[in-house]
Amino acid sequence: MKQGLYLLFVFALVCFSCNQHPKSSAQANVAEPIDIVKPVMVKIPGGTFNMGTNDPSFPDAKPVHAVTVDPFLMDEHEVTNAEFEAFVNATHYVTVAEKTPLAKDYPGVPAENLVAGSAVFTPPTQQVDLNDPGQWWVYVHGANWRHPKGPQSNAADHPNNPVVQVCYEDALAYAKWAGKRLPTEAEWEFAAKGGKGDHVYYWGDELKPGGKFVANIYEGNFPDHNTAEDGFEGVAPVKSFPKNGYGLYDMDGNVWEWCNDFYRPDYYSKSPKLNPQGPIDSYNPDEPGTVCRVQRGGSFLCSDQYCIRYKAGSRGKGEVKSASDNLGFRCVEDIK
After folding, report:
1. Residues 6+ apart with CB under 8 A from 176
2. Class of domain 3-15+40-334
3. Rounded CA gap, 137 and 308, in Å?
4. How does pLDDT run across 284-308, given as a tens digit for each residue?
5. Domain boundaries defined on the chain
C-alpha cells in the first residue's frame, strides 16, 4: 500500500468499536446521570524485570532482556473523553483526524478522497480472509475523537470511555498540556506486569481466571461475530475490569495505548539496561518509509484468532499521524 493511502486509511493491528451494548427500548428514553471518573495517578515503584517474550508469535519482542526503570507516576486509567474535552476546551486544539488532508502530503490520492476522517472498525456480515484488514476497516468521513465511529456517534454521550481516534501527535499535545509525558515502552510493560512477574498474560496464565474475562477483548469469531462474553461489544468505560497489582486499569485490551518510543523490530537486541528510551529512529518493515511509534496493550479487537497482542511482552506499532477507533493513551509523570 502506498504511504499516502496508508496514512489516510489506517490498518490497525487490533481493532475496537466504540459503542457499548445498546440499551433496551425501555431504557433508551430515560436520561441517566453519569458520574464522571476523576483522573488519578498512582506511583509505580520501579525495579528490574524481564522485558519482552519468547513467544514465537512475536519475533519483534525478542530477545527477553533485563531492564531497570526508575519509579514514576502513571494514570490509573486511559485518558477519557471528558479529560480530552477539557484539554480541547482550554487550548482549542484540533486533532489530526479533524483536519482536511493536504494533497501535497498524499501524492496519488484522488482529491475527492481528501476528506477529514479516520479508520473505523466495521464488522463484515460473514467470515472473511484474515489476511485482508480492508474487510473490516473503513475510512469514515467525519470520524474523529468527538465522533469516534463517524458523525452518527457522539463521544459526549460516553464521558468515561477512553478517548480514541487520537494519533501520536494528539496524545503528545495532551500530555504536554497536562504537565505529563507519554510512557516509555519499558515503563509501560513494567507497569502492566503489576509486580506479578512473568506470565502468559499480564493478569496471569489463564485466559479466563475463575471462568471470567478480566479484560475487554474480542470473543467469538473474528471479525464478523462478537459474542461480547466480557460484557462489551466495543470499547468499555475505564475501570470496568479489575485493577492490577499497581492499581492500574485496562493495561490489557480495551484500547491500544501510545508509547513515546520509536518502533524498530530489532531494538531489543541493543536496548540499554537502565531506563531505555527507545531507538533514535523508526523502521517498520511492513511499511518502509513511515514513521512509527510503539503501541501497547492490544484492544477490544484482539482475540486468539487474530492479533493476540494483549499477551504479556507483545508489541504493537502505529504511524504517528494515524488514528482509529480502538486507539487511545495514558500518561506518566516523573517523580520530582
Report:
1. none
2. alpha beta
3. 18
4. 999 999 999 999 999 999 998 888 9
5. 3-15+40-334
